[in-house]
Amino acid sequence: MPAGHDGRDGLDPLMAVLTGEPLPDEARADGAFLAEYRAAEADVTLLREQLGRIGAALAEPPPGEPAPAPAPRKTRPTSRRSPAGPARLRRRPGARALSLGVLVTAVAAGGVVGIGWLTAHPPGDASGGSSKADVASGSARPDAARYLACARLVVEGTVTAVRPGPRAGQERVTLRVTRAYKPGTVPADVTFTWEEYLDPRPGKGQHALVGIPRNADVPDTWVVDPQELAQERDRLDRALSGATAATCE
Q1: Selecting from 3.40.50.620, 2.30.30.100, 2.40.50.120, 3.40.50.10490, what CATH number does the domain 111-243 have?
Q2: Per the confidence metrics, is the pTM higher than 0.70?
Q3: Which of 175, 179, 181, 177 is nearest to 193 (CA)?
Q4: Smaller CB count within 10 Å for the chain: N or C?
Q5: Residues 184 and 197 sit within 8 Å (Cβ to Cβ)
């Protein structure tokens, strides 16, 4: 993904993703700019995942100190796995590598939060798992409340239709909503564009949790595993009490 290309009126696709500012009409009409903007969204999501892994590695005890006993991990059910394996993010083919140093600096300077929080913090990992104290007290991670504050749509439901999307690697997915987290009231059916960097592929009858960031058309959260979905549902329920006070910064 080119980090230096300027769209309409000097707008940079990467900075537009990092700041979350609404795209002007001129930029939305520019096909090349929109392609780079979507690639930037995917790269930022992937970067957050890698930063979470780096943070987990840095949190390991120094040599000589005993490591804390890991929490027991439950075996993932196989019903949700696709031939490609469990849900994960994939780089879209042909997307040019983004400079890690530039993005890390931009994330640190801009205080980017909320982008892909659920997918970048899978249940049970060091950065995203809820502690026993959190569960016992019913408190929610601040990042979960911020994710809701920064999201345009967070819903749960059953996939009723999957159709070819407008571009290669895209699908138009219709979801029959069974639970709306944000906004509180939504149509009975919502339709969105699924892209190939989300895993697994959508299928009719899947029960899924979908999150779409503000000013975006493509989800940054796509959870279909029943165990993971239950854990994310619990996080969101606990975050809802603080979502009104949280701000998207």
Answers
A1: 2.40.50.120
A2: no
A3: 175
A4: C
A5: no
